[in-house]
Amino acid sequence: MSTAPFPPRVPRSELIQSHIAIIRDILKAYTGYQARFGNLFKVRILKRFFLVATNAEYAAHVLVKNHRNYQKDRPSHIVGEVLGNGILFSEGDYWLRQRRLIQPGFHKKQIENLSRLMVQETQKIVAELEKVEGPIDTHEWMTRLALQVISRTLFSEGIDEKGFRTVDDSLTELLHFIIVRIRNPFLLRWYKLTGKLSFFDQKREELDGLIFNMVDARMAEGPGDTDLMDMLLTARDADTGEPLTREELRQELIGLFSAGHETSANGLTYTLELLAGHPEVLAKVEREIEQVVGEGELAFSQIMRLTYMRQVIDESLRLYPPAWMIGREALGPDEINGLKLEEGDSVSVFIYGLHRNPEYWNNPDQFDPERFNEANKKARKPYTYIPFGGGPRLCIGHQFAIIEMQIALALILKRFRISRANPEQPMELFPSVTLRPGSPVLLNLEAKETHN
Ligand code: HEM
User: Fold this and answer.
1) pLDDT tens digits, residue range 264-302?
2) At a CB cut-off of 8 Å and minimum separation 6, what does 364 contact?
3) Residue having the nearest C-alpha atom to atom 27 of ligand 1
């Protein structure tokens, strides 16, 4: 790392305080450093230094312009070691091959097909919500919804409720194990000594077993053209004509399952919460739903016309980006704006800070969907808004996620009038692997008189 005084860093005398502040509330700590030091600063977490970047130039440099000089950071690779090195965590030529194989599954036509499954799953959740009395825990319900949507679009009928709960529970346990490995490496030895490690091995075996069973059953019956598993089974390497191996299939299915539900569930939760707190915006979204969707089944062409709703979702992902930070590590020397970097240096693109950077956004903490109308979108500087990342590793599921959220909002708001159950209580945030609500988001759902 360069010995030059740039970039500013947390002074030595504040290191302990800084550790505590980061552990307690990393969003607040980083936002404070952003205000104090500017758009690039250095923090120390345990023994490692991290460069934290909060402006468009640095984000574009690392993710796009010189992306070849960066790979995912160490914590991401630890997740890859535990879950398997599919498209999410692999690097280099192998990643590119997987990306090319998987990409067609997320083309617009394919998303249109998948949207029918999304509508069916959302309708099931709406029917269940009708039976609920009292306020709902929005995050819990949206997690359920996103789990059902990803399970159904990946495995169609190949998985029942018990199956996807097993996948979700095992993944949750494994992610817990990963966080322990990253944050408290010394606990790993303790886990080995107490035999707890074998518990995690057992979870992984359970998860692998379930996925392999589904893959084997589908291979035996021959793939169709309904879901993402069919797409993976029929995908062929453009150069060699080879299909994915059974092990590669397992890794990609687990990767898509884990990438594809928590982020969407968080996005939906925040959007509903913001709508409930802004009745004038809510009324406009409801009017649009009435005009565009009307009565009858929700069609893909209608979803595409929910443009104001799209602005609301974009603004919600600005304020509460579910992927709140992207971590990268330099593969070799580099220079950003005069700052010299060396191999192994860590750069964190702090998306939460970028999305609230006052250099790009007026009243950045205020909810205002007009920021995303056509005129404002055109005028916006590139890479100031990156909820789905950018460059070659841009989220493969970004259109999937937007359609999923639009369907959920359309069907929920068509059926229910929503309001905050505790209007005075501020929402807390919990930045884990994704940015989750840190306190229950309680909403009242009152059934509307006319619906079909
Ligand atoms: C609101 C919802 C979502 C958000 C905010 C989100 C965000 C992101 C971001 C920021 C990245 C880039 C990470 C990096 O550069 O290190 C990413 C990658 C990825 N996402 Fe998403 N995502 C969402 C939904 C989904 C869904 C629904 C799927 C799949 C069904 C998905 C699958 C993936 C995959 C496979 C990658 C890795 C792509 C690659 O490295 O080539 N995501 N996502």
Assistant:
1) 999 999 999 999 999 999 999 999 999 999 777 899 999
2) 355, 356, 357, 358
3) 260
